[in-house]
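dumping this here so i dont lose it
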């Protein structure tokens, strides 16, 4: 009996030791305020595995990802972007309503060792946007190494609301992505940012602001006992997230890519596609200091109650290969949240009204176009207006502030 008990205790302690979760702190990108911004894009390293440097891209001496740029609606901003990568790149201001020449698409190349100096007036509403390389055929490579950053636009309307907005305290940016690493001796522990037979559209390990969840090591953040705002970007190549809290608690959507929604929307799950941003409020006011909860992706077939496959990018069942990953078709950990002491002047009330959105109607439309697209399935090429991509081809010309109706047909 005694021996048996000893064995059970020994087994239990071994089990708990092997299952013990350790935590690594979330990194919050530093904030830069405008209207003038200097960004130095360069190569560096980050230790994702003990004793092994992973080559990464960053800006201004961080180690993965770039600073968060704070811009104000109505300001004319001036950016100095130095490309110290050993490769040509571009920098695209994702979601910004700006002239094409300033937009940093595949045409506005920044040769290695040069400075790009775009300037534009911020017309966008208060919301969360982002910047990332957009060089033709190299976007996954450059973004995959960590080149990118968030932009937070402020405006008078949003600033007048009683919302959490103390950056890195009760207003937290979360950049979600995942990475696959090479396991071959030649490239050991380097990012595999290829998308093909040897690579994947999906990573194997979840990164939050560049910090990795792996095995029993989870990313952790301390958040105060009050309403906290999460600005979440899906910075994946293809994976969609079905986000929720481990205790199935209700949280509130307050904003999307385009700005505030009319009123907080109570949800227990929210779906976020690549490139998309969402702003959430978590109510931690009634959680005990020291208690914890987890932000997770509920991406398994079981959680969704559906057949995933191509209807849900990242739902494919494979763990390897081009459309496989260790995170595919599973519920996985994103962020461990520990509740800490309330701050001075906490937000303790959920606003009832945020804005009154005016949506375009048919009466605003000055022109209608029909656009055909084909392809996009494995083994096929995309065409737009029956043309393959060409850097020299302008498919459609339209006015800067035109409101048009486009009827898009997938053939
Ligand atoms: Cu983009």
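and the seq i came up w/
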């Amino acid at each position: 009996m005694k021996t048996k008990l000893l064995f059970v205790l020994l087994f239990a302690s071994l089990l708990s030791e092997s299952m013990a979760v350790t935590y690594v702190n979330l990194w919050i990108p530093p904030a830069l305020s405008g209207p003038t911004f200097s960004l130095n894009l360069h190569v560096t390293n980050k230790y994702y595995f003990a004793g092994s440097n992973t080559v990464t891209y960053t800006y201004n001496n961080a180690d993965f990802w770039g600073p968060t740029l704070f811009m104000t609606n109505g300001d004319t901003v001036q950016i100095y972007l130095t490309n110290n990568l050993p490769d040509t790149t571009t920098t695209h201001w994702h979601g910004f309503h700006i002239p094409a020449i300033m937009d940093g698409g595949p045409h506005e190349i920044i040769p290695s060792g040069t400075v790009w100096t775009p300037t534009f007036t911020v017309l966008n509403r208060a919301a969360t946007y982002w910047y990332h390389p957009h060089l033709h055929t190299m976007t996954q490579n450059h973004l995959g190494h960590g080149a990118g950053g968030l932009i937070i636009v402020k405006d008078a309307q949003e600033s007048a609301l009683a919302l959490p907005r103390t950056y890195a305290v009760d207003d937290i940016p979360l950049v979600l992505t995942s990475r696959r690493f090479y396991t071959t001796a030649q490239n050991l522990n380097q990012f595999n940012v290829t998308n093909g037979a040897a690579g994947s559209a999906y990573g194997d390990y979840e990164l939050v602001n560049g910090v990795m969840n792996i095995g029993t090591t989870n990313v952790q953040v301390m958040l105060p006992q009050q309403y906290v705002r999460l600005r979440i970007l899906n910075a994946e190549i293809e994976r969609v997230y079905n986000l929720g809290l481990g205790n199935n608690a209700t949280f509130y959507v307050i904003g999307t890519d385009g700005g505030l929604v009319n009123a907080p929307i109570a949800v227990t799950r929210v779906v976020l596609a690549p490139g998309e941003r969402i702003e959430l409020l978590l109510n931690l006011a009634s959680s005990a200091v020291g208690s914890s909860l987890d932000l997770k992706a509920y991406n398994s077939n079981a959680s969704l109650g559906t057949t995933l496959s191509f209807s849900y990018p990242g739902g494919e069942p494979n763990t390897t290969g081009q459309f496989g990953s260790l995170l595919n078709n599973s519920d996985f950990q994103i962020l461990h949240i520990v509740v800490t002491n309330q701050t001075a002047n906490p937000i303790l009330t959920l606003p009832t009204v945020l804005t009154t959105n005016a949506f375009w109607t048919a009466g605003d439309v000055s022109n209608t176009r029909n656009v055909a697209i084909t392809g996009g399935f494995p083994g096929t090429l995309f065409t737009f207006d029956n043309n393959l991509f060409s850097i020299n081809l302008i498919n459609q010309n339209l006015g800067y502030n035109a409101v048009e109706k486009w009827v898009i047909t997938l053939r």
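Residues 362-410 form one domain.
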